[in-house]
Fold this sequence. Notes:
By secondary structure, chain A is α/β, with parallel strands linked by helices. In chain A, 33% of the residues lie in helices and 24% in strands. Chain A has a five-stranded parallel beta sheet with strand order 5-6-7-3-8, sandwiched between helices. In chain A, strands 2-1-4 form a three-stranded antiparallel beta sheet, covered by helices on one side. Chain A is globular.
Amino acid sequence: MEPNQCLLSVENLGRQLAERWLWRGVSLELNAGDCLGLVAPSGAGKTLLMRNLVMLDPIQQGKIRFEGKPPAAWGLPAYRCRVMYVPQRATAFEGTVEDNLKRAFALGIHSQRRFDPAVIHTWLEQLGRSPEFLHLQGARLSGGEAQILALLRALQLHPQVLLLDEPTASLDAATTAQVEALLHHWLQQSNRACMLTSHDAEQVRRVTHWQLNLGDFI
Amino acid sequence: MESNYIAISYGQLALSALLIVVNLALSVALRLGLAQSLLIAALRMVLQLLLIGFVLEWLFTQDNALVVVAIALVMTAIAGVSAVNRTRRRFAGIYWHSLLSVLTASALVTGFATVGIIRVQPWYDPQYLIPLLGMVLGNTLNGISLGLDRFMEGLVAQRDQVETLLALGATRWEAAHQTVREAIRVGMIPTINSMMVMGLVSLPGMMTGQILAGANPIDAVRYQIVIVLMIAAGAALGIFGVVLLAYRRLLSPDHQLRLDYLVKQ
């Protein structure tokens, strides 16, 4: 495997709301090992770009390829396992945090995988959380706890590209640093890349290798 | 045929108008502001029923399958459209979905009952086909309204959950089947409830009518059982059909939740 293999390539992507183009002509290549910061003023459509990249919204213009193949050729569920989107507002299902983590393995696409408590415990430790976190009720999590849950729920499925929408928006400074360290460590393993948005310009500079300003594509 | 029941003359009918005075008096005394709607509703009811009485009188003398089927189709179309008119949201094609579901469900159920169970000769005898179809349509319509409304509202309310599942790699069915199931369950509740207490709390209208007309109560009960089972099957088929069609529309083959198709009324 080449070190700088292109994982996700985006060509001339455009997004229209009503009659107005929110952004258009967005092209980018996300290579293995990359961490891209997506910046723009609020309301510029950062979230919509991420939703488009995992095709939760239909593509109005442009092309997306993952490892050279369009999402449809992978099959959408298989594509979304490799390019995984973690929304800003984390959603917890009924039951405990552990139930929530296990829920993903009930999906057909992950039927070959098993819930791995050991890995989760390691990550929880790195985030300064005790194993008791697994027994909290999903519905009663604070905003920050829910974000941790959503991040772990995605990480445990071994995606190759992570799209993180404001991943630390509800976290305190200490946990934010721990999440950043965890992400940094996660990126070290081969064939992985990440894109994130953050309202914290300092964090974008600290964490990401390069930035894309959506404001340039109006 | 000599009838063994007391026919109601128009003069006697006029006497029943006194009953609406009870409602009017209450509305005026308590200032409910319902007097006008009550009057309009009562008037509509009387006119519509008198009208349908004449239509049925004419229809029952018809011996032409095409005429009967045409009337049945008109009834089905009205039911299909009315079912959608009660929902809080719409999407393009929703009327077709409703029409198709009502048509398929009522044709299957009514066809099976008239040809297979009651064995009406000829199969289109309007005296049997039209009232039976009417009973099935009325209930299928309610079920479809409830099921469809619940499905769309459910998707809107659980949007985050459905999309979180999709983002984790769920297929559209894995992401939405709980909402589908819930909508079908809610649509079936009235039918199941009414079956539970039938004869205990409610004496079904059709059975009451047959008994008033002089039928043997046991005969009337047997008819009623067939009809209730027809209604239950019709509602189940109709709800199942319409919710699945809506599912295929609102969850795209690309495994996307297309709430942008929904228009609020």
